[in-house]
Structure formats: C-alpha cells, structure tokens
Specification:
Length: 220
C-alpha cells in the first residue's frame, strides 16, 4: 500500500498545489493531505522540515521526497500509473511535455496579474491593471489549447486527461475568475476543467477557507 502524503498550500490560492492533487484525484491515488497556510507562522514553523525548497507542493512517498508540481506528476505517473499520466504515443508525449514545460517556466505576467483566487467574485481586472505581456500570455495559452484540442480531438488537451490538463487547470480557473474573453473552444475547455468533480471538490474546500493572502487580492 502506498503511503503518500501531499503537502499543499491554501486551496484558495495555491495554483501549484492544485496540479498534482488533481492528477491524484483523477487517477484515484489516495493520499493524506498536509495543509500549510501560506505565508503564516505555521508555514515558517512547519514547512522547512517538510519541503527542501521551502515551497509547496511536496510529495512524501515513504522516504522519497519530491518537491515541485511537475516533478511530482512525473514521479506519480512512473511509480503508480504505468506512465498513464502522459499520452502513450512518443511524439504526442513529447508535445505534451513541451506544453507542460512552457506552462511551468513561463507566463509570469499572467501569474502575477491574475492570481488564482477561487473566492474572488467573477469579474474583469481594470484594463490598466493588465499589462500587454499578460495579454500576450493569455493569447499564447489559448493558442496552445486550440492547437491541442484540434489536433487530438479533445475533450482534454491530448484526448484523455493527462498531466498537461493538471498543469493547465489553475490557468483555466484564473481565466474564469477574471472573466477573460476567449474563443468558444477555449471557453469550452475552461468549463470542462472547472466542472470536473475533482476541481469542484477542491473549490468547495477553498470556499470554506478563511486565510487571506493580501498580495493575491487586488483592489480594482
Ligand atoms: N516550481 C514550483 C513552485 C512552487 C511554488 O512557488 N509554490 C508557492 C505556493 S503556490 C509557495 O510555496 N510559495 C511559498 C514561498 O514562495 O515562500 C512548483 O511547481 O511546485
């Protein structure tokens, strides 16, 4: 029996934590959740012993410790899913890894100007608060999605649900929260992301949280 523990941040805000959690839920991998309230004294006291990077998410599998959302997804896919976290075809898997790497290392403007915040009422940010770079990030993400959905015929980016969908779930949530206008196909993908039962379960828990991280809240 696996002894998986996933250390995660506030469900309302922790976009990185959502990714491996969603993958685990999707594939029915049971884990104990260890919640850490980000940027609080609890984090300062407890996280150093759990996370070599001082960040969440972190997976503990017995003695094995894996930090970083993408590395956790990779590990889970190899160790527990016979590689089913990725598409079976080598070329398509390469494509999936490329979009995940692009998501993982990019889109800084979108991340800082449109924080994941599930409790925020749906509504646009003021135009002055959204930089050209953020608009460019959004267009590029939409382009990735449309290309994948057209090539592999949906409903998920690579046909079946994969690590790529787990990696893009927080962005889908951001685009929804900030009422970003998208094409019908991209909107459909956002709706699929947000209506999957695992996301709904995460969201329900997020709405019950009370912790507030000021720099993830905007006044406009
Ligand atoms: N590349 C890392 C980033 C993790 C990350 O930045 N996590 C945030 C919370 S969502 C965090 O722990 N921040 C705490 C800090 O920066 O001190 C990953 O993919 O897991």
């Amino acid at each position: 029996m696996a002894d998986l523990k996933l250390v995660i941040g506030n469900k309302n805000y922790s976009s990185w934590s959502l990714r491996p959690w969603l993958l685990m839920q999707h594939f029915g991998l049971a884990c104990e959740e260890i919640p850490i309230a980000l940027f609080t004294p609890q984090m300062a006291a407890e996280l150093p012993a759990l996370s070599p990077s001082g960040k969440v998410p972190v997976l503990h599998d017995g003695d094995v410790v894996i930090w970083d959302s993408l590395a956790i997804c990779e590990y889970l896919s190899e160790r527990y899913l016979d590689g089913r976290g990725w598409p079976a075809d080598l070329a398509i898997r390469g494509h999936a890894r490329a979009v995940c790497a692009e998501m993982h290392s990019g889109f800084a403007a979108l991340r800082s100007e449109m924080s994941m915040n599930l409790r925020r009422p749906i509504g646009r940010r003021a135009e002055h608060a959204v930089s050209d770079q953020c608009h460019a990030d959004i267009r590029r993400i939409e382009q990735i999605w449309l290309d994948c959905l057209a090539r592999y015929d949906g409903p998920w980016l690579f046909g079946e649900f994969s690590i790529a969908d787990a990696m893009f779930a927080p962005v889908a949530s951001r685009l929804h929260t900030y009422a970003v206008e998208l094409s019908a196909e991209a909107t459909g993908y956002v709706e699929r992301q947000l209506s999957q039962p695992a996301f709904q379960q995460w969201r329900k828990a997020a709405l019950q949280e009370t912790g507030r991280i000021e720099f993830c809240e905007y006044d406009d």
